[in-house]
Amino acid sequence: MDSGPARDEAMIDSRLLDASETGATTLSSSLVARLRAAIMRGDLMPGTKLVLDRMRAAYGVSLSPLREALCRLESEGLVAIEDQRGYRVAPVSLDNLAEVIRLRVEFECLAAKEAILHGDTAWEGRILSTLHQLNRCKRGVRSAEEQEQWEVAHRAFHAELIAAARMPLLGQFCQTLHDQSDRYRRIFLKSHEPDRNVPAEHEAIAEAMIARRAGDATRLLRDHIERTGRNIQKALRAG
């Protein structure tokens, strides 16, 4: 008996199912990115209660992808689940910031050492390229748009420093910690001018990485992260 039509129908059903799953995954990932950006920018401030019905209407999605997105952000430490009853933007605290700083120093310095071991000349060129883009951003007081341009360039530079580490899990941990650190820094910059020392620190770190001076590179990176953290801690203590 000819099974061609049945086989063709099964193949069509399979493709439709795959397309449906792909669409759901794309929607969820897009929603995660939008919510993460809103939290990072401060559109959703620390401690804000996330009302699902309002968010569903605002983002034009159903509850299922919204809950999935919030759970993914909870795993990144940007959203807190409250006794299974609801969601809230993760609060900020001195203790949490101190932990973020300590872990970021340890993980990024390890990744920097690995990147120096494995990086090639193309990687060196990408470091210089991202540094150039970062240095082209406006210094001093910035508008919201200018600050967002700086944030994008800053993230790209720090990501490229450790991109050659060949340790994907470590890279994911560094990215999550960088998000946590960025959130604190953005809150700090809402009421403080950007630090004048930062551009020089970036250039010194890049130069040491490219020159394969692992000791200097990790020391400079550690000082850079810790000094920024101390400035934010001081501001938090001051209220």
UniProtKB/TrEMBL annotation:
InterPro entries associated with the record: GntR_C, TF_FadR/GntR_C, Tscrpt_reg_HTH_GntR, WH-like_DNA-bd_sf, WH_DNA-bd_sf
UniProt-listed SUPFAM superfamilies: GntR ligand-binding domain-like, Winged helix' DNA-binding domain
Cited SMART domains: FCD (SM00895), HTH_GNTR (SM00345)
Coiled-coil annotated spans: none
Gene Ontology terms, MF aspect: DNA binding; DNA-binding transcription factor activity
Record key words, sorted: DNA-binding, Transcription, Transcription regulation
One Pfam family recorded for the sequence: GntR
Gene3D superfamilies: GntR ligand-binding domain-like, Winged helix-like DNA-binding domain superfamily/Winged helix DNA-binding domain
Occurrences of domain HTH gntR-type (ranges): 25-92
Protein name, UniProt field: GntR family transcriptional regulator
Organism, scientific name: Phreatobacter stygius
